[in-house]
Target: Aminotransferase
Amino acid sequence: MPDLAPRATPDARDAVRALRPSQIREVANAGFGVPDVLPFWFGESDRVTPPFIRDAASAALASGATFYTHNLGIAPLRATLARYVSELHGPTSAEHVAVTSAGVNALMLAAQLVVGAGDRVVAVTPLWPNLVEIPKILGAHVETVSLVYGAQGWQLELERLLGALTPDTKLLMLNSPNNPTGWVMTRDDQRTVLEHCRRHGIWVVADEVYERLYYADGAGQQAALSAPSFLDLAARDERVICVNSFSKAWLMTGWRLGWIVAPASLMDDLGKLVEYNTSCAPAFVQQAGITAIEQGAAFTRDLVADLRASRDHLVRALSALRGVDVKAPPGAMYVFFALPGAAHSLELCKALVREAGLGLAPGSAFGPEGEGFVRWCYACDPARLDAGVERLKGYLERHGIGR
Ligand SMILES: Cc1ncc(COP(=O)(O)O)c(C=O)c1O
Model:
């Protein structure tokens, strides 16, 4: 009889085993069985995708859009996206656009295109963990440069970032508007970083999935249609890959549809990677994406106005709590604030969900520099935010925190 006994425990690769599990999931699991949790922990609105987009998907399904598509997306969607990007950020042709299965997949594809084992990657943190963990799956080494928190909220120390972008760096991963802080990189900083990266041949992957959720403040200022983007500065055929998504600006998180803007010279190789990852985004979802872009301008404009009002509402309500340090961030859909008792933010968030039915994301989920903070997604109506703030207030009072 051959010896069929396993020789060692069947484990995943070391790089995979070393990935950090999601602390937000850990908090959500702690709330399992707690009735009536108010969930502000995930990055999505409590509103369903608008009817005109759902109807377009139904019509596409009814007409039989159930087959594989081209790896890089159906031609009409690529053309529509090229027009959309051109209007926001300057001339862009369909050959620079690829359709992806939402932003996460776009980030993975972008990393797979340029990063390999042993490569040095730099990321600005606190940051949604996927951007830091994805290069690690590929065996890369990720260095982080932390934003600093002060009177103006979260700020980038540009010289520190430039210092970290050494000539042997392969890739800079940036996310602006930023999850979790709401930080928005200034156009001047983008210009300086881009020039530096050009000089050293460093790739930039700019995660701009929140570009439309931008609240350009200032007296009498008209809201800008988009946050400053690397696409405003970079030529389409240089080492810049921009990642975007339908999830946030059209409330399509569950649809898994996004896109990449990248040099045309990458597209054949990108097509191969799409083939081996997902093959394509679903055909009827891609068709609904065309409708989202072509008919969604007013919807997104109203959504951004609602989000701004919700942000201001939440910041006002939280400011009234003793010991809470909160500032209105210029972008995305989160308030990332400090509060007494959050020195161990994971433990605090677990206690909040168990004892108060309040679901927040711990700052430590976004890197060690996020410790002491919690993230609150404000993409919901103000009454729900008020209910959440009441629960937080009750918890702080019961525990004598902040007195
Ligand atoms: C910074 C950032 N990038 C990318 C994504 C990806 O979103 P999706 O995969 O739904 O497009 C998210 C989602 O929360 C995000 O916060």
Observations:
- Residues 14-49+298-397 form a domain with the Aspartate Aminotransferase, domain 1 fold (CATH 3.90.1150.10).
